[in-house]
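[stage:ingest] chain + small molecule (magnesium ion)
[stage:ingest] validated
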Amino acid sequence: MEPGKCWKDLSDVIAAGLKRILLYGPPGTGKTYAALRLATSGGPAERLVCTEDLTTAEITGSWMPVGNGRWEWREGPAIRAWRQGGVGGRLVVDEVDRASGDALSTLLAMTDSPESARWRNPETGEWVKPGSEFSVLMTTNLEDLTAIPSALLDRFPVAIRIDQPHPSAVTSLSDDLQTPALNSALGEDVRRISLRRWYAFDGLRRSIGAERAAQLVFGEAQGQDVLDALRVGSLR
Ligand SMILES: Nc1ncnc2c1ncn2[C@@H]1O[C@H](COP(=O)(O)OP(=O)(O)O)[C@@H](O)[C@H]1O
Ligand SMILES: [Mg+2]
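[stage:predict] done
[stage:export] tokens:
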């Protein structure tokens, strides 16, 4: 399966050395998966899932009790990714549209350009800077990027709309589901269905049969559409 244009754009800008990329578009196409795995060489990427409750402590770290009344500073995912930056550390900021308040200000500091970004460890007083290969990929399921604070958006000169599932995500489905899954992700044949549903259906139908699995996963009406699409596919 040929990777679509959006996926090619993504691998090309990463290969060209761009270190701040925003991925947006409908859920379930593989944005987070790609952000976590694509071209990271500094060990596993650090992931931050933004919610309204996300705090600065969850981004840069917090004091933790270590017994005998002693406390140590435990560095958070953003600082860990900075420290891995020399060898390609990556921070993935997932669902970035949900970040607000203090967390948002901290995210601004953590995604700043390498020349100006600095953070001081409150325990050791050490100044930490992001390593030269440090990269940030942000994801959002929003279509409308104006909902993302402009100061944050400004740090991400390239935003790629992921409008189709990653080819390897589709090929990990059973053969007969691949074309319908791709078409449905493109909004053709049947209404848009996220990859996660196709995976669930694929697994479930092995034990409870396609009819019931379709009904449970896709609902009554859409389940029927899916079964019809599969029947047509098997005739072809
Ligand atoms: N390249 C891939 N290979 C295999 N599975 C994938 C791939 N990309 C995504 N998936 C799977 O597809 C589902 C949706 O991916 P995810 O990255 O969470 O989508 P999004 O972030 O766009 O909502 C997940 O279950 C994920 O594990
Ligand atoms: Mg995601």
